[in-house]
Amino acid sequence: MMVQSVITQKRGDRCVSGIDALDSILNGGVPRGNAVLITGSCGTGKTTLSMEFLIHGALMGENGVFFSVTENSEKLLSNMMPYDFFDESLFTTEKLTIVDMQDIYKKLDLEKIEFSFEDIDKLIKALSEIVRKKNAKRMVIDSITSICFHLKTEEKIRTFILKLGASLRDTKCTSLLVSEILPSDARYSTYGVEEAIADGIILMGNLERRGDLLRTLQVVKMRGTSHSRAKYVLDITPLGILMVPLLKGGGG
Questions:
Q1: How would you list the strands of the sheet with 212-222, edge to edge?
Q2: What is the Cα–Cα distance from 34 to 167, expressed in whole angstroms?
Q3: Which CATH class is domain 16-202?
Q4: What is the dihedral of CA 199, 104, 115, 70, to 10 degrees?
Q5: Burial class of residue 67 in the structure, from the number of CB atoms within 10 Å of its CB (0-12 exposed, 13-18 middle, 19+ buried)
Q6: pLDDT tens digits for range 209-221
Q7: Bridge partners for 214 per DSSP
Q8: Beta bridge partners of 138
Q9: pLDDT tens-digit profile of 30-42?
Q10: Fewest C-beta in 10 Å: which of 5, 58, 96, 225?
């Protein structure tokens, strides 16, 4: 009975994305505490999905932090305002926080081309302290690729991702790590290390079908849950992200 209770509890311990079709694919949501790679080329909806994940979480009472490497907070907020699910009060009440990574780099004296292992430890400590201070249960880094550019080697990339995951594990913070790849890439991350370490991979792409360019989403892997590996058509609407199976959305 005790073993069954533990199994049931683990199955139910999900971080609900708020994107109904995605939660259905994952049998209830992302297993809590997972670090998930959101990967794809330009214009596939990675940032929108990540921000919607945080906003829905905040509306359900889970604080979130968005670490932005490539865009400042004003631009991110401006891009989110047209969506019906956007609620500016979540930011003014600090249920959601956007942190510009350039400010962290400046504070830690990390305005350099390549980070050392000591720099990695400083950066992980700074990110983890912000997550804990905000009591965040959801975190997004957009993009992990930009941080990896400063790490250079596979060993440093592996060290950064593993140590960051370990630092956040006790808080049960679920993380989305945005990965930027080219449409022609055969792998799911720029350096090939991120995809091997991540607990999950959600692949977002563009598909030309009958003269239209469709956005697609496919869950490649997700530790801790069974899931569909089918490809879905993704539509970004004022209501947020909507998804349908590719055959229906693509007209066969």
A1: 96-100, 63-68, 136-142, 174-180, 35-40, 200-209, 212-222, 231-237, 240-245
A2: 12
A3: alpha beta
A4: 70
A5: buried
A6: 888 889 999 999 9
A7: 207
A8: 64, 174
A9: 999 999 999 999 9
A10: 5
